[in-house]
Amino acid sequence: MARQVIYTFKGQTKTIPFSYDIHHDLYEAAAEAEGIDLTKFLAMEQQIALTSKKGAKAEKEFRKSEFARFGFSSIKFVREDDEI
Fold first, then answer.
1. Mind listing the pLDDT tens digit of every residue in the chain (84 residues)?
2. Strand order in 12-17's β-sheet?
3. How many contiguous H segments (helices) and E segments (strands) does the chain have?
4. Residue 58 and residue 44: Cα distance in Å, rounded?
5. Are the C-beta atoms of residues 52 and 61 closer than 8 Å to each other?
6. How deeply is 58 buried, as exposed, middle or buried, from its count of CB atoms within 10 A (0-12, 13-18, 19+)?
7. Of 48, 45, 43, 19, whose CA–CA distance to 32 is shortest?
8. 11 closest CA partner among 44, 34, 43
9. Is the CB of residue 30 less than 8 Å from the CB of residue 12?
10. Could you tell me the pTM of the whole model?
11. Quick one: which H or E segment has residue 13?
C-alpha cells in the first residue's frame, strides 16, 4: 500500500499521497498541498537545530507551533487499519 498523509487544515480534513522521493517529511507534503511556502520556516528550523542540544524538544515544539499558526491542527500518516 502506498503511504498517505491525513491532515486537518483550517477545519477541513484531507488525505494526500506521500513519497519520501518527493518530500522530506509529512509536514512538507501537507504544506505543499496547501500551497504554503516553507522557505523561511526551514531556514529558522535549521537555526534552531544548530543552537539547541541534540535531542532537545526545541525543533519539535517550533514545528508544532508554526504549523498550528499556518492553520494545521493535525498531520499524521494513515495507518493501514484506519478507515478514511
1. 578 999 999 999 999 999 999 999 999 999 999 999 999 999 999 999 898 887 678 888 999 999 999 999 999 999 876 555
2. 12-17, 4-9, 72-77
3. 3, 3
4. 12
5. no
6. middle
7. 19
8. 34
9. no
10. 0.82
11. strand 12-17
